[in-house]
Design a protein that fits this description.
The structure is a single chain. By secondary structure, the protein is an alpha+beta fold. The chain has two domains: 12-206, Transposase IS200-like (Alpha-Beta Plaits, 2-Layer Sandwich); 225-274, no CATH class. Helices cover 51% and strands 11% of the residues. A five-stranded mixed beta sheet has the order 2-3-1-4-5, with helices on both faces. Strand 2 (50-57) and strand 3 (60-67) form a beta hairpin. Helix 1 (30-47) packs antiparallel against helix 2 (72-91) and helix 10 crosses helix 11 (259-274). The radius of gyration is 21 Å and the shape is globular. 31% of the residues are buried.
């Protein structure tokens, strides 16, 4: 079966899962989990991601997040790539830490929000036999039960509105919801490999993704113009940015580089032109 195409559009919500390479525990220590969350925080601030729940287990992790921009793939490349670099540097190892492609289900939050949230929050108990999940550093549950402790990229107050109107009632309702039998398995409800939602949701998601793709197609065509007759790719990046028509991240995505590479190319080009 062909792997599904990523579907991205502004405001999309996803259940993301990534597995570690066999024999390489990705989150075996407190230091591992703290470092991953630091990287997630940096990317979330940069891209505006809102992570409603996370669970970091020794051999995999789950995220339930919303992307205000259509940038899941870009952000995940950065998240897994930067964390792997930091992990290898800190542990004196090398090589891949995660298996191939991450998995992402596009979630209809009108229907599946609470089920997906509980699925992620219960993962440490279900898979790692952790009894006091709220005390586990690899879970976001503690932040939801004490919203004042939550970082800005984890909208604890917003999550709790799905369970009640006041903090006390919503926290109690969340705890009761987590204690109920959890038989939800996302794989049993997935449609067309990537959707957690009904046909109306799928149609709307495809419409939004298609509209974004048409817009990107025009920009990609325009960016190709800067490559014509230009052997130096860095010079092409600089000229595209200095034209004023493209954001640095758009150029980075087109050339498949980190945005800092574009920034350096622009500075080098400006220095050359100034001489």
């Amino acid at each position: 079966m062909a792997r599904p195409t990523r579907m991205e559009f502004p405001g999309a919500s996803y259940l993301v899962s990534t597995a570690a390479v066999t024999g390489r525990p990705a989150f075996g220590t407190e230091a591992d989990r703290a470092e991953f969350l630091d990287v997630l925080a940096q990317i979330s601030r940069r891209l505006g991601w809102q992570t409603h729940a996370y669970a970091l287990l020794e051999d995999h992790y789950l995220l339930f997040l919303q992307t205000p921009q259509a940038d899941l793939s870009r952000g995940m490349r950065q998240l897994n790539g930067v964390y792997t670099q930091h992990f290898n540097q800190r542990t004196g190892t090398d090589g891949s830490l995660f298996q191939g492609r991450f998995k992402a289900l596009l979630v209809d939050t009108e229907t599946w929000y609470r089920e997906v949230l509980r699925h992620v929050l219960n993962e440490p108990r279900r898979r790692a036999r952790i009894r006091r999940v709220e005390r586990y550093s690899g879970s976001s549950l503690g932040h939801l039960l004490a919203p004042e402790s939550a970082p800005e990229w984890l909208p604890a107050a917003e999550v709790l509105t799905h369970f009640g109107r006041t903090r006390a009632k919503s926290v109690a309702a969340l705890q009761a919801w987590l204690a109920e039998p959890d038989t939800f398995d996302p794989r049993q409800h997935v449609r067309r490999q990537i959707f957690l939602g009904d046909e109306a949701f799928i149609d709307e998601a495809q419409r939004l993704a298609s509209r974004r793709a048409r817009g990107n197609s025009g920009k990609r065509s325009d960016l190709k113009g800067f490559l014509r007759g230009q052997a130096d790719k860095k010079a092409a990046m600089a000229r595209a940015y200095l034209s004023g028509h493209f954001r640095m991240q758009e150029i980075a995505d087109f050339f498949d580089v980190h945005y800092s590479t574009v920034s350096r190319a622009v500075k080098a080009w400006e220095a050359t032109q100034g001489n």
